[in-house]
Amino acid sequence: MPKITFIDAAGTKRDVDAKAGASVMEAAVQNMIPGIDADCGGACACATCHVYVAEGWADKLKAKDDMEDSMLDFAEDVQDNSRLSCQILMSDELDGLLVRTPEAQ
After folding, report:
1. By residue range, what is the domain housing residue 71?
2. Assessment of whether the complete model's pTM goes beyond 0.70
3. Residue 74 domain-assigned (yes or no)
4. Which of 78, 19, 82 is CA-nearest to residue 28?
């Protein structure tokens, strides 16, 4: 089972297991990760699951589509490595994925 490491704005690190095929957002919600609100439940209709993908991981992810890019316009403090965690599907190749949650959603 692939692992995800979440680091919040205060630097607290949390490691969780994720089922292959589940989104990073689903793993966060199931493990009560603070900072992932997931108001739309993963429908890519809000930006409350915004995360920053750590260096070295972005190239391993499926590219952002137009919908995700549009939704990121509603997120606070968007950076080049910003993604919506509902759009990142876990796989064995993503074992060890490191994401940071923003200070506010």
Report:
1. 3-100
2. yes
3. yes
4. 19
Q: Give φ, ψ of 23 to 5 degrees.
A: -80, 160
Taking a C-beta distance cutoff of 8 angstroms, is the pair 96, 1 a contact? no
Specify the long-range contacts of residues 78-84, CB closer than 8 Å, at least 24 apart. Answer: 78/50, 79/52, 81/52, 81/53, 81/54, 81/55, 82/50, 82/51, 82/52, 82/53, 83/50, 83/51, 83/52, 83/53, 84/25, 84/44, 84/47, 84/49, 84/50, 84/51
- Measure CA 75 to chain center: 13
**Number of structural domains the chain divides into:** 1
The string of DSSP letters for 19-33 reads -TTSBHHHHHHHTT-
Under DSSP, the state recorded for 89 is: B
- What is the per-residue pLDDT across 35-50, written as a single tens digit (0 to 9) for each? 999 999 999 999 999 9
Note whether residue 57 is domain-resident. Answer: yes
Give the 3-state secondary structure of residue 74: helix
The 10s digit of each residue's pLDDT in 85-101 is 999 999 999 999 999 99
Structure tokens that stand for 82 in this block: 């910003």
